[in-house]
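Hey team,

Filing this mostly as a record. A colleague (T.K.) asked me to run one chain through the structure pipeline before their review meeting, and I want the input and output archived in the tracker in case anyone asks later how it was produced. No errors, nothing strange. Just documentation.

Input sequence:
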Amino acid sequence: MLKCYKIFIIFFMFSFYVNSTNLPDKLLNIPINLISGESTSLSEYEGQKAVYIKFWATWCKPCRKEMPHFEHIKNEYGDSIEVIGINIGINDDIKAVEATIKEFGLTMPMAIDKSGDLAQAFRFIGTPYHLLFDRDLNLIHRGHKANESLDNKLALISQSKPVDLLDIDSLSENEPNLKIDLNDDKIHALFFTATWCDWYLKESRPQSSQNCISAQKNVNTLSLAYPDIIWNSIVSRLWTGNTDLKDYKKKYSINHSIAIDMSNSLFHQHSVKDLPTLLLIKNNKIILKVTNFSDSEKLNKLIGEQKA
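Output structure:
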C-alpha cells in the first residue's frame, strides 16, 4: 500500500511539472535558428533553465547602448539562465550582425529572424524587446528597457526564487488585420515603409534613409501617373502610432491610402524585411518587387511594363 502511495505521489508531481508552463505549444516549439547553424527552442529548457530573449537591430541606438549589459547578463547568469539574442532581420544582414557581435564581444547564442516568424510569434513591437521566462517557462517580464525591474527579476530567477507571472495573453496578437482584397483581377501596389526610416536611419544607414525618402516621393508620383493601379502604403507598426502616421502623411503630402499594419500581418505574410519595399500584386500573385528606388525612370518603366 505504501509503495502504491509513493508511486501516486511521484506521478502527481510529474503531471504537475509537465503542465507548469502556460506557454502554448506554438511558442514552446517554434524553432530559433542560430547563426551557428544549430537550432533551439524554448521547450529544450523547460524545467532546466530560465530563458532571457532579446530582440535587437544593429542600427537600433538603444540596442547598441545596452549591449554591454546584455553580455554582462550572459557572463553573470549564464549557468542558470539561457541568454539568446535575436536580430530582427529588418534592414540587416549577417555581416552587420557579425560585426556587432565582434564589436561588443557578445558570446550568447544569436539568431536572425529572416522569416519574421519569431517576431510574429512573440508579438515583437519595437527594439529593444526583452522577454524573460522562468525555469518553468512562464512569462515574467516583457519590456523595452534594460532597467532595474529586469535586473531584479534576472537576479531572482537565477536563484530559483519566485517572481510574479505576467498574463500570457500579452504575447497574443489582439490587433485587427488590415484587409485588402488582392484577388479581384486588378493590380494592387503595396508600398511597405516606416514613418521613421527616413530620419532615424540617417546616420547609421544613410543609403537606406535616402532610399526611404526617394521611395515615398516616387510612390506619390506613380500613384498619380497610374490611377488604374490600387495604391496602398503599408506602414510598419514599430515605434509608430496614429500621431506619427498623421505627421508622416502631412510631411510627404500623401494622397493615396495609407495605414499602419497594427497586427504586422501584411509585413509577415509577404515576408517584407527591407524598408522600403514595393510589391505589385494581381490575384494574390506578386508580379513585381522593388527595394531600390534610386532610379525613378527605371521604376516608372517597370510599373508601365506591368500595366501593358
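Quick notes for T.K.: The radius of gyration is 23 Å. Confidence is low (pLDDT under 50) at residues 1-19.
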